[in-house]
Amino acid sequence: MEHLTIAGKTFKSRLFTGTGKFKSNQDMKEALEASESELVTVALKRVDIKDQNDQILHHLSHERIHLLPNTSGVRNAKEAVFAAELAREALETNWVKLEIHPDPKYLMPDPIETLKATEELAKKGFIVMPYIHADPVLCKRLEEAGTSAVMPLGSPIGSNKGLKTIDFLEIIIEQANVPVVVDAGIGAPSDAAKAMELGADACLVNTAIAVSQNPTQMAIAFKMAIQAGRMAYEAKLAKPIANAVASSPLTAFLDA
Amino acid sequence: MPNFKDLFEQYSWDKVKTSVYSKSAQDVERALANPDRNLEDFKALISPAAMPYLEQMAQLSHQLTLQRFGNTMQLFAPMYLSNECQNICTYCGFSLDNKIKRKTLNDIEIAREVQAIKSMGFDHVLLVTGEANQTVGVDYLAHAIQRIRPHFANVSMEVQPLDQEDYERLIPTGLHAVLVYQETYHEADYKKHHPKGKKSNFQYRLETPDRLGRAGIHKMGLGTLIGLEDWRVDSFFTALHLDYLERTYWQTKYSLSFPRLRPFSGGLEPKVAMSDKELVQLICAYRLLNQEVELSLSTRETNLFRNHAIKLGITTMSAGSKTNPGGYAVEPQSLEQFEISDERSPAAIQEMLRAQGYEPVWKDWDVALETNV
User: Shortest Cα distance from B69 to chain A (angstroms)?
Assistant: First the structure.
């Protein structure tokens, strides 16, 4: 299986994970270790970036894990840039998952503020990974703004509804010059496998793992599904077609 | 300019009451089966007809809460800054006609209380006062927040309703959320319970969430004081208010609380008692109506009830609460606003949560997310 490269950093695992909603930090740690995920997003609002002994950060300190601080909670580009700069200083990473969802009910990303923040953060040297709607034009605009990847949603965050935006994800994947990470709404390993079969570069999964009865086992299930989906994509899946194609064509004798 | 008052005036208390009490088992079943429940469904879920469906409601509420909030419980502590009050309220220990020793914390006392609350592990604090604009007005509150904010990730406030420009002044000092309970949406009864003081102005209080929304508050908390009037009707109006606010001030987050009248010095007997079963019904009904709203439960409730409420839809809890100014360190013996019921320490609450497979969340906000502080 090919490795994934984002902004010059190579990842063996194409499963990215989140850290919210687990019933304990220990559960989170065990699940993330089992997932073999190398990119783990952490909400700035949940950690104390000034505290060397922060329990969440402590449980994430693993040589394999690359932290991706997210800006969940900000409502506009100005707040997002401010949060990213504080995170860069405290966590010593210039990677940021840009989340600007001024609507706290459905956590819908704001495309205008996200584009503005991406432009500014990219100029400041950040590796920006913005969470967005599955909007193909916005993805191209973000590329022009200097994004390092795009993270379109499959369905609303935490909804477990799967790939409701599949038609648009296909266009985004077809047109993308940066990695496409399907983020939000992935509720089952089969959703993740499907996203990978489409050609997504990675999936980010949190709720489906964290709130399952057995997060560690679910993390392994997602790991395997993402591997299977990616392998199928690389092996060039046969495309469904409308007409029948006989394996023994009736007119083959004419070429004999 | 949008105003809830305009919508509120289209409803009649008596008609809502008749509508709620006339809901049938079929209405409840329809509400349970509807994935996009509306306010009519909510009426069915809070009606007496829903009582036989309580376990089904609880299971559904648990699933919805788990999906949205995960296995977590946010913890906060109230910090009473003052018990001075110019209002007469029939149900409150701080009422002007209640002859108690009045106290407002000064800077040194605030610092001691902060230290005591921090030492218990809290990072979210709720500042509470009575209503005494001369001594505990906006200047005092702004000053207090500026002193307290550096020590906590999140500062909320439950004080007298203020003007929009007052909120606009306080939010940049680091005020994250404001709780303002209507107490009751029954206007005539409201006036009976609040005969004197600024609080007797029903309309001004009713419009407070609008002023907060226009001021751009991050989060606001709503609720009524259960026991003053028919809780079913009051809860419908709370849900109506929430629905309006979510549509109008869509960038604000919301929380709901369900304080039941508790004993206090000079106390009032509840006009309408609410049983534990009915409180469970209400908690679940709110969750079935709204998957995203935070549901908060205070130490007014018993240990047993709180232990079980965790899996019914509650997302936020206070712990180790003191309801008197200086109650943590400065003057533990001063008179409480009301008696708490769950007296366990925050550490004991943490252990109870962990034993049930929940992660206590002490911190869920950060100054990094606010450019204006």
Answer: 6
Sign of CA dihedral B2, B5, B9, B12: positive
SS3 B354: helix
SS3 per-residue string spanning B250-300: CCCEEEEECCECCCCCCCCCCCCCCCHHHHHHHHHHHHHHCCCCEEEECCC
Q: Which residues contact B229 (CB under 8 A, 6 or more apart)?
A: B184, B185, B186, B189, B271, B272
CB-closest option in A21, A73, A83 to B70? A21
Q: What is the dihedral of CA B154, B158, B161, B166, to 10 degrees?
A: -30
Mean pLDDT (whole number) for B283-292: 96
Instruction: Give the DSSP letter of residue B242.
Output: H
Burial of B162 (0-12, 13-18, 19+ CB in 10 A): buried
**What count of CB pairs under 8 Å joins A to B?**
84
Q: Dihedral sign for Cα B55, B61, B66, B69, please.
A: negative
What is the C-alpha to C-alpha distance for residues B298 and B257, in angstroms, rounded to an integer? 8
Residue B2, burial from CB neighbour count under 10 angstroms (0-12, 13-18, 19+): middle
Q: What is the DSSP secondary structure assignment for residue A239, as one 8-state letter?
A: P
Q: Domain spans of chain B?
A: 4-23+37-363
Cα separations in angstroms, B175 against B139, B146, B153, B216, B316: 14, 9, 11, 11, 18
Is residue B368 within 8 Å of residue A49, measured between CB atoms? Answer: yes
Which residue in the set B252, B358, B369 is minimally distant from A44, CB to CB?
B369
Instruction: Please state, in angstroms and rounded to a whole number, the distance separating the CA atoms of residues B349 and B321.
Output: 12
pLDDT at A52 over 80: no
Q: What is the pLDDT of residues A19-50, one digit of tens each?
A: 989 999 889 999 999 999 999 999 988 888 77
B368 to A83: CB separation less than 8 angstroms, yes or no: yes
C-alpha–C-alpha distance, residues B72 and B316, integer Å: 9
Work out the minimum CA distance from A248 to partner chain B, whole angstroms.
50
Angle at A36 between CA A34 and CA A41, to 5 degrees: 105
Q: What is the pTM of this model?
A: 0.85
Res. A242 pLDDT band, cuts 50 70 90? low
Cβ–Cβ below 8 Å for A45 and B370: no
pLDDT digits (tens, 9 = 90+) for B297-341: 999 899 999 999 999 999 999 999 988 889 898 877 666 666 678
Confidence of residue A229 (pLDDT cuts 50, 70, 90): very high
Chain A nearest C-alpha distance from B5 (Å): 23
Rounded to the nearest 5°, which phi and psi values hold at A28?
-60, -50
Chain CA centroid to CA A133, Å: 12
The residue to which tokens 């751009």 are assigned: B216
What residues does B361 pair with on adjacent strands?
B74
CATH superfamily of B4-23+37-363: Aldolase class I (3.20.20.70)
B287: nearest Cα among B14, B42, B4: B42
Cβ–Cβ gap B246/A105 under 8 Å: yes
The pair of three-digit structure tokens given for residue A215, joined into one six-digit string: 């997060």
